[in-house]
């Protein structure tokens, strides 16, 4: 009995001498709160307001009403913006009235459509209308081309009047009309057409005073009547 009492007393003495272990979770603030105030986000907001020179309560952001991105109104607005017409398109729904049908656009005649004509008039009225249209026809008779005011040579008329191809000699030429003289003479014209006009105005094709037609075919400085003849078909 005495031995048991001694063991108990020794255990109590040892526990009294051992240092107390502190509670590691004691006095630790909740992560969502701080010491002496509410949540940390409220503290940060107040601190920011103080730094900016503001005071009073922090305004609360209003609620934002969100709409579904695939709603009919959103699709209609997107289509109107894309078309850049300023008018929202009509949403296709079973209850919408059908769009108007254009029977005939302005400027398009329906006279060749038997169904369209028979819907507006009968055969007798159509025949009378055709006769009225024929009475209004005006035939323009062809007239002669006006004469050139300057009276100079006409290379188009000359091309159509002649038949010989380029290079076929028809007229006699002087031996003095050498190729070198021909090249120097043709260099003074901006185009073969102008050279041919001057050649005809100077007595050509029978005469070649300037050495423009040394081979005697009647065509100066490489001028070719073939394009004008092709228009006529000859």
Structure notes:
The protein has a two-stranded antiparallel ribbon with strand order 1-2. The model has no long low-confidence stretch (mean pLDDT about 75). The protein has helices at about 1-15, 40-50, 70-85, 115-120, 125-135, 155-160, 180-185, 190-200, 225-230, and strands at about 35, 35-40. The protein is elongated. It has about 230 residues and is an all-alpha fold. It is built from 9 helices and 2 strands; from the N terminus they run αββαααααααα. Among the domains are: about 105-130, no CATH class; about 155-230, no CATH class. It comes from Maliponia aquimaris. Keywords: Signal.
List the helices and strands and how they pair.
Elements: H1 2-17, E1 33-34, E2 37-39, H2 40-51, H3 72-83, H4 114-118, H5 123-135, H6 155-161, H7 179-186, H8 192-201, H9 226-232
Antiparallel strand pairs: 1-2
Helical region count?
A: 9
Side by side, the strands of the main sheet go: 1-2
Low-confidence stretches: none
Summing up helix and strand content along with how strands pair, one would put the structural category as mainly alpha
Sequence of secondary-structure elements: HEEHHHHHHHH
Which range does the strand content fall in?
Answer: under 5%
End-to-end separation: 154 Å
Count of DSSP strands: 2
Helix content: 25-40%
**Backbone shape:** elongated
Mean pLDDT: 76
The main pleated sheet reads as:
2 strands, antiparallel
Our Rg estimate from Cα atoms comes to 55 Å
């Amino acid at each position: 009995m005495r031995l048991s009492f001694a063991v108990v007393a020794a255990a109590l003495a040892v526990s009294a001498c051992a240092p107390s272990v502190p509670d590691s979770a004691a006095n630790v603030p909740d992560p969502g709160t701080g010491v002496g105030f509410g949540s940390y986000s409220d503290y940060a907001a107040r601190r920011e307001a103080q730094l900016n020179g503001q005071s009073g309560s922090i305004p609360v952001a209003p609620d934002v009403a969100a709409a579904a991105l695939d709603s009919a109104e959103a699709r209609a607005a997107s289509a109107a913006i894309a078309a850049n017409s300023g008018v929202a398109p009509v949403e296709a729904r079973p209850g919408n009235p059908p769009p108007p049908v254009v029977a005939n656009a302005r400027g398009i005649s329906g006279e060749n459509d038997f169904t369209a004509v028979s819907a507006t008039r009968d055969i007798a009225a159509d025949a009378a209308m055709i006769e009225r249209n024929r009475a209004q026809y005006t035939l323009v008779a062809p007239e002669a081309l006006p004469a050139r005011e300057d009276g100079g040579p006409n290379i188009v008329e000359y091309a159509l009047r002649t038949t010989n191809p380029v290079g076929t000699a028809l007229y006699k030429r002087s031996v003095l009309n050498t190729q070198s003289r021909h090249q120097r003479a043709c260099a003074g014209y901006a185009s073969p057409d102008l050279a041919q006009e001057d050649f005809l105005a100077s007595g050509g094709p029978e005469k070649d005073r300037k050495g423009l037609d040394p081979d005697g075919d009647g065509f100066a400085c490489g001028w070719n009547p073939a394009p004008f003849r092709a228009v006529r078909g000859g």
